[in-house]
């Protein structure tokens, strides 16, 4: 049996904030592995063009080189059509019944999770590891939101105590399109890949 953290996302592109969050989960909760799992066609991002999955996967693989305990997973991206977190987590439990899974998210996801596809499945299939970070608009204090979801769904939600990072994939894409440097936001191998493949030059 293994304790496995799941870092899901579009990873368009993967950046140092993703790695920092994965490392905190790995160390703070003694996980055996953290699987970085790019999404296929995220249903909530149909309003913009998502970079080809081949490029996003290649960047994740480059970012994970030399990172102890971090593994690339194509479990979600290999499925056709729109991919929903609830379905992915249910399939993971079915495919790896002996393992325990922990889904790693930011506080913004925890505040919006009831808008997800079948949130009750997400909240009961895995434990959530949540990093506190800024979230706009009116909302409960994070600990109260955790208590609310725990009481309503019987969820297991734990806090990640990591420093907040002001890095966003959207800002990185914009910086590339404007010719600004991104070396402080992404691993060097990812930066090189973005420039070699001419990604994000026209957005």
Q: DSSP helix count?
A: 8
What is the topology, as strand order, of the major beta sheet?
A: 3-2-1-4-5-6
Low-confidence stretches: none
Binned strand content: 15-25%
Classify the helix fraction into a percent range.
Answer: 25-40%
* Quaternary organisation of the protein chains: single chain
**Helix-and-strand structural type:** alpha/beta
Overall pLDDT, averaged?
92
Overall form: globular
Largest sheet: 6 strands, parallel
- Give the tally of β-strands: 6
SSE succession: EHEHEHEHHEHEHH
Distance between the termini: 44 Å
- Cα radius of gyration in angstroms: 17 Å
Describe this entry's structure for a reader:
Helix content is 39%, strand content 16%. The chain has 8 helices and 6 strands. Strands 3-2-1-4-5-6 form a 6-stranded parallel sheet. Helix 2 runs antiparallel to helix 8 and helix 3 packs parallel to helix 5. It is globular, with a radius of gyration of 17 Å.
Name some characteristics of this structure.
203 residues, alpha/beta, six-stranded parallel β-sheet, 6 strands, 39% helix
Task: Please give a quick description of this structure.
This protein is α/β, with parallel strands linked by helices and about 200 residues long. The chain is built from eight helices and six strands; from the N terminus they run E-H-E-H-E-H-E-H-H-E-H-E-H-H.
């Amino acid at each position: 049996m293994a304790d496995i953290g799941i870092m899901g996302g579009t990873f368009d592109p993967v950046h140092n904030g993703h790695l920092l969050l994965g490392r905190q989960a790995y160390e703070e909760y003694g996980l055996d592995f953290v699987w970085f799992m790019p999404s296929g066609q995220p249903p909530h991002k149909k309003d913009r063009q998502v970079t080809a999955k081949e490029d996003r996967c290649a960047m994740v693989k480059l970012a994970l080189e030399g990172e102890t305990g971090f593994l690339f997973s194509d479990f979600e991206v290999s499925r056709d059509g729109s991919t929903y977190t609830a379905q992915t987590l249910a399939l993971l439990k079915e495919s790896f019944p002996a393992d325990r899974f922990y889904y790693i998210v930011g506080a913004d996801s925890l505040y919006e999770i009831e808008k997800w596809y079948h949130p009750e499945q997400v909240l009961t299939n895995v434990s959530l590891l949540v990093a506190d970070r800024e979230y706009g608009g009116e909302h409960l204090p994070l600990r109260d939101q955790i208590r609310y979801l725990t009481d309503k769904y019987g969820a297991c939600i734990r806090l990640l105590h990591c420093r907040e990072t002001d890095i966003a994939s959207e800002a990185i894409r914009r910086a590339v399109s404007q010719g600004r440097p991104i070396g402080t936001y992404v691993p060097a191998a990812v930066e090189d890949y973005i420039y070699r493949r001419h990604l994000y030059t026209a957005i």
